[in-house]
Amino acid sequence: MSLPPDTPQGVGDALGYLQHHLQELTERQNVSETNINTTLAALTMQLQQLTQLVANPSPPAVLNTPPPPAPSPPTAQRTRPKLSAPPDFSREHHNGRTFLNSCSLYIRLAPEQFCDEQEKILWALTFFKDGRAAKWSENVFCQEADTGVFPIPTWGDFEQQFRLHFFPVNAEADAINTLEGTSYHQGGRTVDDYLDSFQTLVSDAGYTDPRTLVVKF
User: Fold this and answer.
1) Which of 92, 165, 171, 184 is most buried, judging by how many CB atoms fall within 10 Å of its CB?
2) Are residues 99 and 156 in the same domain?
3) Residue 136 burial (CB < 10 Å; 0-12/13-18/19+)?
4) Per-residue pLDDT for 8 more than 60?
5) Contact criterion met (CB below 8 Å) for 172 and 204
6) Do residues 121 and 152 lie in contact, with contact meaning Cβ atoms separated by under 8 Å?
7) Residues 6+ apart with CB under 8 A from 123
8) Is residue 110 part of a domain?
9) Are both 93 and 160 inside the same structural domain?
10) Domain range holding 120?
11) What is the pLDDT of residues 62-71, one digit of tens each?
């Protein structure tokens, strides 16, 4: 826009400044409108995408979860053989070995029934019902009452004392005398009874030579 020729210099400068400022404002307005239009276009596109998602929701994702493991078959319970309690014991020397073997076998087959060594010994003493065995058991508990300490600490100690009191004193000598004597024979016993007796005597006598065993049999 041109000014008339007769326009004063001051006025012309002012008008020039105003024209320049107006041009800057116009340019800024154009830039702002461009930015606004760009922002509106981006928002419009996002709105359209959201509308499509609402109208057509995606199916839920399927998780590939492995199937649960098959249950393990039940473990078969081990059945324990029925155990027979040892017989009552009185005092007979020839029954001492049988009684002690019965106790030891029971303890080995059912160790979980005994909390400690003392419980094994107390259990064995319950079979000392009469005779010299009952008297010996009574003496054991009398010692405990006097000292406050159970006198037989372990099962091994019990076995040792039991052999001392209730096994034949001269088992080896008695067995040798029987086997070496002329009166030892089967007699009216069955073969099984005679064989059992012979094996016990051989064990007590300490015979191991097969030739000797054949001769004595």
Assistant:
1) 171
2) yes
3) middle
4) no
5) yes
6) yes
7) 114
8) yes
9) yes
10) 86-167
11) 667 777 777 7
